[in-house]
Specification:
40% helix; alpha/beta; 8-stranded parallel β-barrel; binds 2-phosphoglycolic acid; triose-phosphate isomerase activity; 10 helices; TIM Barrel
Length: 253
């Protein structure tokens, strides 16, 4: 089994580089004795350069990357530029970006481009709501198939799949708690889709869970949710809360 991974998604936070440095340094200090767990933080683009000097142990990630290497794409940042800056992970297809109009086809181009730039994509999939007819399995299946179209068998092991049921994310109005059972059945389903499409080696692709993860349920998701890591939004903006989750990941068997 590969190392557990805990990834912080800072979204469009915090307000200043000083706050970002304080938060990042706090985590860097806190993880000095963490050995079995990989820790990654995905800050807004413009903080990356400043944060990179503060820790070599925290892997830096981005929250998006455009496809292509260079060109006339006003406002965009390429995977290659991020890689050259020291970034190693990139979140792609987050539900908050899908809500702004990003489709599976765009995400597919970004995934292929990120892989060729040397980045590890964190592909977010997940349904907005659960229907009694279990249609949400089909939705996740098409997200996976369309977003991973044309990805090679060798590359699939570099992709991390984040199952994030949108109805459990902290910013979703009227959100509900997802359970480790919800995560487990989807993780089994995702492994099956990957294995049908890419063969048995795809079992090396890590599946992680995200959606209001806290110190209260992190251990349960890791032990019983069929996942090898966690994608943490709100709790990653608080050093104490984020460290609590990292320590749980480090110590749970
Ligand atoms: P949350 O965010 O932990 O605040 O629910 C997770 C995410 O959106 O990636």
């Amino acid at each position: 089994m590969s190392k557990r991974i805990v990834i912080g998604n800072w979204k469009m936070n915090p307000r200043t580089i000083q706050e970002a440095e304080r938060l990042f340094s706090g985590v860097a200090k806190g993880i000095s004795r963490i050995k079995k767990t990989e820790v990654a933080i995905c800050p807004p683009f413009l903080y990356i350069e400043g944060l990179k000097k503060l820790s070599r142990k925290i892997s830096l990630g981005a929250q998006d990357a455009f496809f292509g290497e260079v060109g006339a794409f006003t406002g965009e940042v390429s995977g290659e530029m991020l890689y050259n800056l020291g970034v190693r992970h990139v979140i792609l297809g987050h539900s908050e970006r899908r809500a702004l109009g990003e489709g599976n086809g765009d995400i597919n181009k970004k995934i292929k481009s990120a892989l060729s730039a040397g980045l590890r994509p964190i592909l977010c999939v997940g349904e907005s709501e659960r229907d009694t007819g279990h249609g949400y399995f089909n939705l996740v299946k098409s997200q996976l198939e369309e977003c991973l179209m044309g990805v090679s068998k060798d590359s699939i092991v570099k992709v991390i799949i984040a199952y994030e049921p949108v109805w459990a994310i902290s910013s979703t109005p009227g959100r509900k708690d997802a359970t480790p059972e919800d995560s487990l059945e989807m993780a089994i389903f995702i492994h099956k889709i990957l294995s049908d499409k890419f063969g048995s080696d795809s079992s090396k692709a890590r599946i992680i869970y995200g959606g209001s993860v806290s110190g209260k349920d992190a251990g349960e998701f890791l032990r019983h949710g069929g996942v090898e890591g966690l994608l943490v939004g709100r709790a990653s903006l608080d050093t104490k809360k984020f460290m609590e989750i990292i320590k749980i990941a480090e110590n749970s068997e």
